[in-house]
Amino acid sequence: MSDTEIELLAHRLADAAAAAALPYFRSGLTVENKAEGAYDPVTAADRDAELAIREIILRERPDHGFLGEEFGALPGNGTWQWVVDPVDGTRSFVSGIPLWTTIIGLRRHGTPVFGLVDQPYVGDRFWGAVGAGARMRNRFGQEVPIRTRACAALADATLMTTTPALMTGPGERERYDAVERAVRLARYGADGYAYCMLAAGQIDLVVETGLQSYDVVGLIPIIEAAGGVLTSWDGGSANEGGPVIAAGDPRIHAAALEILNR
């Protein structure tokens, strides 16, 4: 696939997901819990949005693999794989808060090469490919390139995480708290939308844990194309999720990693 073909298809996938999910937003829909001993909500919006994307891939690119949060994996020929979280931030979705997004990522031979994140209620859409830059389009149809902002020190940084309550692994909360104490401002609750704010130069750092591949594959190309860094807490690949850290400036990425690995 050419870069243009990838981008056009990804936008169509996002449009289809938005058409499926938006009618459910703030509608009083039924919410199910798919976790035992915890709360992991899922709704018809999650399922219908993923099926809308999956249907297009199966029809138009049957040789491509597919991995989605709700319905799992479909094999492809090994070259291309779409990795999708149809409604990232379902807790926000069921609370009527427009911070949920659809995250669409594309891997080539296992490496993330393109990402798109859509918030259709607000009207914000972000996309990017390494080597091609990152862009966003707002609800007024204005399309602009985006870039992370310079931030040399943690003391000047704005940090986001979904919630520190998710830091439940050994030592995770203590290490996260140490990073939060070092920054100027910390904000919670934006899920994947926070990474887009980082790519757009609005915040500087995102630190999270417990992520899956469908949470991050679509974010990595956008962050990197915008000039940022997204890795695991040990500085390795975040392609499969886990504890991740994203930074707009490599200097605060290094400083936060140092704290996380003490």
From TrEMBL:
Its EC number is 3.1.3.15. Signal peptide: none annotated. Pfam families: Inositol_P (PF00459). Its cofactor is Mg(2+). It catalyses: L-histidinol phosphate + H2O = L-histidinol + phosphate. GO terms for biological process: inositol metabolic process; L-histidine biosynthetic process; signal transduction. Keywords: Amino-acid biosynthesis, Histidine biosynthesis, Hydrolase, Magnesium, Metal-binding. Mg(2+) binds at E69, D85, D88, D215. Pathway: Amino-acid biosynthesis; L-histidine biosynthesis; L-histidine from 5-phospho-alpha-D-ribose 1-diphosphate: step 8/9. GO terms for molecular function: histidinol-phosphatase activity; inositol monophosphate 1-phosphatase activity; metal ion binding. It comes from the Bacteria. CDD domains: Bacterial_IMPase_like_1. SUPFAM superfamilies: Carbohydrate phosphatase (SSF56655). PROSITE patterns: IMP_1. NCBIfam families: his_9_HisN. Belongs to the inositol monophosphatase superfamily. This is Histidinol-phosphatase. It comes from Tepidamorphus gemmatus.
